[in-house]
Amino acid sequence: MRIAAHPSDHQCVVVGLGAMGSATLYHLARRGVRALGIEQFALRHDRGSSHGRTRVFRTTYEDPCYAHLAAVALERWRSLERDAERSLLDLVGLLGFAPRSNEHFWMIARQLEKLGLPHEIMKGGDAARRFDAFSFDDDVVACFAPQNGFLRADQCLQSMQELAVRDGAAILEKIPVRDLEPVQDGVVVRTDDRSVLAEHVVITAGPWLGRLAADLELPLEVTREQKVYFAVDEPRLFAAGRMPVYADYESDVYGFPLLGPGVKLAADHSGRAVDPDDVKRTVDPSYVKRLKAWMRRWMRVEHVRPTESAVCLYTVTADFDFIIDRHPSVNGLLIAGGFSGHGSKFSILIGEIMADLVTHGTTPHAIDRFRLNRFTE
Questions:
Q1: What's the whole-number mean pLDDT along residues 120-139?
Q2: % of the chain surpassing 90 pLDDT
Q3: CA angle 179, 183, 184 (to 5 degrees)
Q4: What is the pLDDT of residues 268-294, one digit of tens each?
Q5: 324 vs 337: CA distance, rounded Å
Q6: How far is it, in rounded angstroms, from Cα 336 to Cα 315?
Q7: Which domains are present in the chain?
């Protein structure tokens, strides 16, 4: 990566280059802003929330705010694909299912209907005949939404970082930020070996946000989440396109078609609170056992074998809503965080919003819901 020789040349410093920070740097550079991104670990590291092959892209929210933002984000991902000349978003569809009595399922279905988003409600048996990797009967009901799928997360991250540098941004990796100091002309960003003065600083530090913005006493919790890949008996049944992304609204298990080392499964928001600097990085055997049992219950499998696993971190707010705002008392300091395990799909749009706030002081996107003052009102 190109490293700037003169830190004072930067109009904006982005602290933290996961999905949100990389998207912010990308949009700033496209607008001609002299921007520097600083990452405490190596680029595309596996310590936070943005690593790995895939993330779910979905519009299947019961909340119209997020459903709308996801629809806008889809357009922005397509724009990034054109800029990167690379396929990043695969709309293989999402199959959600649950017992007929599950109210969450029906709330999502009603919201898709209200927003005019394409979807199809079907009996479980019909869903299993259509997507033959699954083993459903009519005790469940399913909803297939075609404008959903998965992002190639690692390639998204790489594309945004490389394009940001192409357009003039600089990146420092393996450089922890130790302190942020407001001064008359902006904010000073201090590391172990340098001080950088910038007109604007954007903190997108994920699980470390609470430390860099400690004065705000943000109500954040960092949780340890786990993902497991499984080899399956008949890989052809699980191929992307033949198999969609899927979500069990009763157990909160979700997964992907066969990609890379196997079929990826996870149980959403099932982890415990941790210190982001002290995380057990091996997956629990009991967790693997739970997911294997789930596969045997809902999929056409006899033998499943874990092939790879990983741990990532969620940074969760009390209301599961994002934080996107200016610091209430430090001019030029902006914060984006608390994405609560469902932010990756929006990252390309969040980056645009942060670039709007840096360059114009406002954004056309509705972000009042994500203000900091909701925690103190």
A1: 96
A2: 94
A3: 165
A4: 999 999 999 999 999 999 999 999 999
A5: 7
A6: 11
A7: 7-50+154-219+320-375 (3.50.50.60), 94-146+221-317 (3.30.9.10)
